[in-house]
Amino acid sequence: MTSGQPLLSSSDPLSVPHPNPPSRISSLDCLCPRASFSSSNSQNNLFDPNNCDDIISVDDTSFVDINLDSFSPSTSKVYSAESHSFQQFPFECSPRQRKRLVSWGGSMELQQRSTSFNSSGASFKVQDKSSKSQRIRPKSRQFDNNLSHDENPRLIYIDDPRKTNDKYDFTGNEIRTSKYTILNFLPKNLFIQFHRIAYLYFLAIAALNQLPPLAVFGRTVSLFPLLFVLCVTAIKDGYEDWRRHRSDRNENNREALVLQFGKFQGKKWKKIRVGEVVKICADETIPCDVVLLATSDPNGIAYIQTMNLDGESNLKTRYARQETISMVCEGGTISGVIRCEQPNRNIYEFTANMEFEGHKFPLSQSNIILRGCQLKNTEWVVGVVVYAGQETKAMMNSAMSPSKRSRLETYMNRETLWLSVFLFIMCLVVAIGMGLWLERHKDQLDTLPYYRKTYFTDGKIGKPYKFYGIPMETFFSFLSSVIVFQIMIPISLYITMELVRLGQSYFMIGDKYMYCPNSNSRFQCRSLNINEDLGQIRYVFSDKTGTLTENKMEFRRASVYGKSYGSSMFTADSAEDTDIKVEQTAAPVGRRRWKLKSEIGVDSELLALLHKDLDGDEWSAAHEFFLTLAACNTVIPILTQSQSSSCTESEADEDVEAIDYQGESPDEQALVSAASAYGYTLFERTSGHIVIDVNGEKLRLDVLGLHEFDSVRKRMSVVIRFPNDAVKVLVKGADTSILSILKKDPTGNDHIRHATQTHLKEYSSEGLRTLVVAARDLSNAELEEWQCMYEDASTSLTDRPIKLRQTAALIECDLNLLGATGIEDKLQEGVPEAIESLRQADIKIIINGTSEEECRILLSDAMAKYGIKSSNCRNWNLKWKKTAEIDYVEIPDDTKLSTMPKVHAGKEEGTLSTPLALIIDGNSLVYILEKDLESELFDLATSCRVVLCCRVAPLQKAGIVDLIKSRTDDMTLAIGDGANDVSMIQMADVGIGICGQEGRQAVMASDFAMGQFRFLKRLLLVHGHWNYQRVGYLVLYNFYRNAVFVLMLFWYILCTDFSTTSALTDWSSVFYSVIYTSVPTIVVGILDKDLSDKTLLQFPKLYGAGHRHESYNMYLFWITMIDTLWQSLVLFYVPLLTFGGSSIDIWSMGSLWTIAVVILVNMHLAMDIHRWLLLTHSAVWGSIIITYACMVILDSIPVFPNYGTIYHLAKSPAYWISILLIIVLALLPRFIFKVIHQTFWPSDIQISREAEILRKRPNNFGSRPYQEFGHTVKIYRIFSSND
Predict the structure, then answer these.
(1) Alpha-carbon distances, residue 1257 vs 23, 1089, 1266 (angstroms)
(2) Which secondary structure element, helix H or strand E, spans residue 329, and what is its range?
(3) 3-class DSSP state of 728
(4) Going edge to edge, which strands form the sheet with 255-260?
């Protein structure tokens, strides 16, 4: 292989010829007749469907061993890459040999990172059960034609944009992220706003008020509330869209170098077209999706930073094809045709072919640089535009995450429906009363005001009054009542909740205790709709790596050839006195040494073994072991030459090469760094080879192919050619993936394998992450067979990942075990304390993504701490049995958990007679989720104290969340840091992303984001509790505030013969909920605290108030409505009785009712405030002052009918006495109820508040601890239960 050809991966495959290549053979003929591949997506059929009806695709993670003895001797083998194990399938089978192999929706075929590109689009959906059993037929060894017959490929003519765009009419490179234009802003914005049903309700009310028979209020005044809300929202939306327009304009007008008339000239981004050749210089942003043709590096390597795309700050490599590099560098005509897939949002895959000078070669994700990325450490690159503008992958991923709705807001809609029923009943009472009154006085209508047929003005006949008849007048009375009582449905509540949530988010973001200095990140509120849901979480689904752990890997242990190393590690500073000088740097190469960026501990015994001049099996295994660690990866070595300052005199003139590694996986970086510390330093990577310094000797290895790690195979392999023309495949991966494809020892005495498995358990018991390393030699025939398959798979435009997995299975078999590694990934600071506090808060934590051994360690810790005992569970355990035809486990459909331990009746919720723990892996989930056993799993999981899920795929994580979410009303929260957690985060009611080492895909798909898991404790127990308590009270208070005002008007209408007239001015009715009473509600909703953060953190059980819905429930709603009814009666009748028989006019009474209701609702609010601040005092008492000021202004306008009323009322002592009586009588029942309830049936919140008050009174605390409150026992219970 030439050194200039691209590095190969599962996404960048390339067939490399042998030094003595065979003649070109067709795809079919070059394949071994004994092998075939099975794909769940196969279209070519080798089976007769009548012969094998029930052959089902095996799930990618299931372990299946087919009994070959039941097959005929002529049976051929099928190697499937879609399983961890080496599977064998018959080409022919009789009906009795049919086997049913199940897979869960094919979810395991998704690559681990493929979930991130769905973060902004569709929500997760569990596959329809009807797709469980899909009939397939094995596929021919010859892959499908490279071009899809179902989808037309996208043809790009290089440097010929006219031909490219004239034929296919691709979009330009101009982008638009804005929603509106000047012409469509008003209609489109109004259309979006009126998606809220409440807005349509108030629009209908305003429209009714414009009709002459129904004009209760002034026509202009009736439109004010709705217009105010619409205008405020429109201004906010308009400002946000203006900023988007400005950003789009700046982006579109940037310039890039485009090849025009034989030279590169500047051109605005928005004018770039598909097919044009562009040149990007160092540190510039990529203007569109570009396939690389050449770079400043002779080997075609380019380094890019994708932070703007996926948030990852580490550099990534992209490669230009050697064929196009020579074309560009030689200055020849740039031409060719690219056939690529249609635009899609998958930023981790790109499938295409390039035809150049009669040759066809594949293009993949490693050959394309995407819009928004930045070019780093590379002087320039030249490429051809394949996707532009809105069709770029960045723009197709720019949609927001699925919106979520607060659970409390859903409950609020239920109560709003009840208020609508009350409104209908009141309007119906008024309408019926009006009809009865008209029927009773129908003979007097000619003489009654407003009903006589003719008006007389100054003795002259005036304008006749149009009387519609009793039925129509009754109907008009009903509609008029709807207009008068319209604020029974509080329109201001929507605006108030948004402002309150905004204020709450401000304080959450500014919380210094949730600031992460390591990542320099503050808490982020990415969704303002679900703040209060944080106070009701019952289940937390957490990823492990990077979420609970630091995701900073350190190499600790190694098992090589059945022997464990690393129990005593040394660094350069601590090993000076040892017999063998152990340094963090590798052995010198000539006059050059390698110095790693960070210290790496090494084992002296293992280091001595590597330096021995031996050819034994142990040395050979150790040599290949570290060679695999150095070669089987995609990391980038970055060199910095510096003069050594710590060398001995003989080495004073040595040049020390400081080397660092950039990689997409922290695991890979740790393994490559460890290999360097032991003398195997990867220091050069080109497009077709790597160079490793092996204990002072330079070893150049040609890379023939690289199958990258994916969530299906759970392993990675590289095919390399050594200088002596020997070809090896080096593999590393999960233990469950590698151990199943090892070469079988015919003697059955494989002590190395057994020793390695023992070491794996030992490393896992120490909390280390484990990988298994293996290798094998490839014969020329195997290499040729693999190359042919590899080329066909890598140039396929359809199902390329599946075909590459099938190709990998050809060489990833019969491996020789080399050893295993143990990498330490420490728990983040405060994680154990946070989990313990959440557990005390009765929050169940389900951990996804850990290994089986780590599960056992976590479980043993939980069993020791919480008293969970092991049990055989014979009477209720699931019965597993093997079928006669296939070695896999099956759960019988008749298995039930009816006899498993249940929750004791009458005891605390969640208390079990026998504490249980559950460990479940992805393989088990495949069968459980496919065999309709979800309800059984739900019953079992919810009955356990500890639930750990290991080896689960990304979509299985989301499936577990959906399993709980769909079968209970409890709130769920998912927290993760990687792209594989996106589906889980979007499925849960609340999604939280961790700003960790795996990029920002999880953050971009989340509702909230934070730096470390330990902040979840404060987020839920403190801010979640506060937000839930505030918003719950806010909703109830708004219902009360509007209902008491409406009921006061209702009593007045009943006393005025159902006339639907009002004693209040139109402006007073409008200002009541907009100005007079809105500010205190907002301030209290943002600042009020029922308990301090110290108390909430000290006693996590207080979080249970959210689980019990103590701040908002139907009971509180009905109590509030009864209290509202009483207060409205007092509010109406006290002034009526006080001024009965006096000469006071109706407008004066309306003025008194207005000020009385404002003072009443503010005093009601003041009774419930827990934390008084200067701003709270200003809001509550200031609103009363503002109300008086507004009334003075309104009563000072001569054209208004209430002109001067406030001045006459203020002089009357009865005015002030009636207001005082209203306040006392209206609030007295509420005060008595609160005193009795808190004395005899106090809640934990109330008890804790009393404890806080007592702690602030040290003098009284010692003498009379709790007797005066009567809660001695319960307060002691709270304190003692958390000590």
Answers:
(1) 95, 20, 12
(2) helix 322-329
(3) strand
(4) 263-268, 255-260, 277-281, 380-387, 289-295, 368-369
> How many Å apart are CA 872 and CA 332, to the nearest integer?
76
> Which residues, listed in sequence order, are joined to residue 560 by a DSSP beta bridge?
563, 819
pTM, 2 dp: 0.69
DSSP string, 1009-1077: EES-TTHHHHIIIIIIHHHHHHHHHHHHHHHHHHHHHHHHHHHHHHHTTT----SS-HHHHHHIIIIIT
Continuous segment of H or E residues that includes residue 539: strand 537-543
The number of CA neighbours under 13 Å toward the Cβ of 728 is 18
Beta pairing class for 537-543 and 844-850: parallel
The pLDDT of residue 15 is: 37
pLDDT at 764: 84
SS (H, E, C) 103-141: CCCCHHHCCHHHHHHHCCCCCCCCCCHHHCCCECCCECC
Q: What is the pLDDT of residue 251?
A: 87
Q: How many angstroms from the chain centroid is the CA of residue 1229? A: 47
CA distance 1162 to 1173: 16
Please give the pLDDT value at position 126.
36
Residue 556 backbone class (left: φ over 0; alpha: ψ -120 to 50; beta: rest): alpha
Structure tokens at 307: 């932070």
pLDDT at 142: 35
Neighbours of 1265 (CB within 10 A): 14
Token pair recorded at residue 19: 């030094």
Element (H, E) at 1239: helix 1213-1240
Given a contact cutoff of 8 angstroms between Cβ atoms, the answer to whether 545 and 997 are in contact is no
- Per-residue DSSP letter, 380: E
| 8 Å CB contact between 916 and 94 | no
Token pair in block for residue 20: 């003595």
Q: How far is CA 684 from the centre of its chain?
A: 38
Token readout for 979 is: 């792209």
Write the DSSP assignment of 396-448 as a string of letters: HT-SPPPP---HHHHHHHHHHHHHHHHHHHHHHHHHHHHHHHHHHTGGGTTTS
Half-sphere exposure of 1022 (CA within 13 A, CB side): 19
Cα(622)–Cα(819) distance, rounded to whole angstroms? 8
Report which of 1106, 1209, 1176 is spatially closest to residue 841, judged by C-alpha positions.
1106
Whole-angstrom Cα distance, residue 457 to residue 462? 6
Contacts of 293 (CB under 8 A, 6+ apart): 158, 277, 320, 321, 324, 325, 327, 328, 334, 382, 383, 384
Tell me how far apart the alpha carbons of residues 40 and 805 are, in angstroms, rounded to a whole number. Answer: 12
| Residue 693 is among the residues annotated as catalytic for this protein | no
pLDDT at 720: 94
Q: In the structure, how many helices (H) and strands (E) does the chain have?
A: 38, 39
* Regions of the chain with pLDDT less than 70: 1-151, 197, 212-222, 308-314, 330-332, 397-403, 447-467, 551, 569-593, 597-598, 613-615, 641-656, 687, 747-749, 849-915, 931, 996-1000, 1258-1283
**Widest distance between CA atoms in the chain:** 131
Of the residues 533, 543, 735, 921, which is catalytic?
A: 543
C-alpha span between 316 and 664 (Å, rounded): 7
**Res 889: pLDDT:** 34
DSSP secondary structure, 695-721, as one string: TTEEEEEEEEEEE---TTT-EEEEEEE
What is the spatial distance between Cα 72 and Cα 51, in angstroms, rounded to a whole number? Answer: 15
Number of Cβ atoms within 10 Å of the Cβ of 1061: 15
pLDDT tens column, 223-244: 777 787 788 888 888 888 888 8
**Residue 282 identity:** A
